[in-house]
Write a structure and sequence with these properties.
With 303 residues, this protein is an alpha/beta fold. The protein has 12 helices and 8 strands. The structure holds NADP nicotinamide-adenine-dinucleotide phosphate.
Amino acid sequence: MTEHQSPDVTPVAVIGLGLMGQALAGAFLGGGAPTTVWNRTASKGDALVAAGARRAGSAREAVEAVGPDGLVVLCLTDYDAVREVLEPLGGVLAGRVLVNLTSGTSAAAREVAELMARTGGAYLDGAIMATPDGIGADDAAVLVSGDPAAWDRYGATLRLLGGGTARIGADHGLAALYEMGVLGLMWGVLNGFLHGAALLGAAGVSAEAFAPVARHGIGTVAGWLTDYARRVDAGDHASPDATLETHLATMDHLVHESEALGVDAELPRFVRELARRAAAAGHGGDEYSVMADVFRGRVGAPS
Ligand SMILES: NC(=O)c1ccc[n+]([C@@H]2O[C@H](COP(=O)([O-])OP(=O)(O)OC[C@H]3O[C@@H](n4cnc5c(N)ncnc54)[C@H](OP(=O)(O)O)[C@@H]3O)[C@@H](O)[C@H]2O)c1
């Protein structure tokens, strides 16, 4: 144990030192965890080795180097890479805990959980809710799902990655599902902002001037989520603050404004088409939260 190491922090092997893997390894190292690193392109580990990490010559050597109490962390491009790295390891993962922070689907995460179960190891799947420069900060979070005993053993080490790091359930697929939900949210918000910036740009207004107004609008909408979530869970979209028909009328304005200004109108047309399907199915007087039922395929199937 180093002088900075908390007694709860364990040795860690980080396999995959891309932009994110380097940040993860740096946070483990900075938090006092004895850290062994391996990357296919070895030079990406040079700065970490200079900062005190141990370099392994292979993924197998990295797993062996941290010993039976060590945590094995994977962060690779995708699940093809995960399979390519894990399959040759076989029995060396027996009795070990693997945390996979590679992005992918819930089905892919559950497949790795089965592979680890067959190997005699435990598995946690994780979704990183931060960019590399945010790793280790109080507001960074890694959402982890899977084996409860593995979380009890390694939660303190994983919390070095961000103050909001938490386990969200036993189903190994949950972290990936949360990540998908947040990614959809991210693209929805970013596309809305960038489309709005294109509209204002047509009148000579810079994106920088629009940004504070957009940020305020995002905050206003974020304030609606608690009520929307309650409505979605209860299946109750009555007594709206604004009806779906009112939303549809303003969607028309957005489509027409975009067309008039030569701004691509495909995104607002698509959003309007989804809402029209719900209205055609008799939900025009409901709160906009009823769109959850369109996404669930319960109302307004495409004609
Ligand atoms: N960057 C972010 O902001 C961010 C945020 C959240 C989540 N993530 C997720 O984190 C994961 C890694 O992202 P990144 O930004 O670090 O990507 P990256 O910089 O492109 O790094 C990819 C890593 O995967 C390794 N790799 C790919 N194929 C491999 C194979 N067949 N065998 C062994 N190693 C292989 C690469 O090794 P080489 O160096 O040898 O090519 C590299 O270490 C992704 O799933 C990403 O979605 C990233």
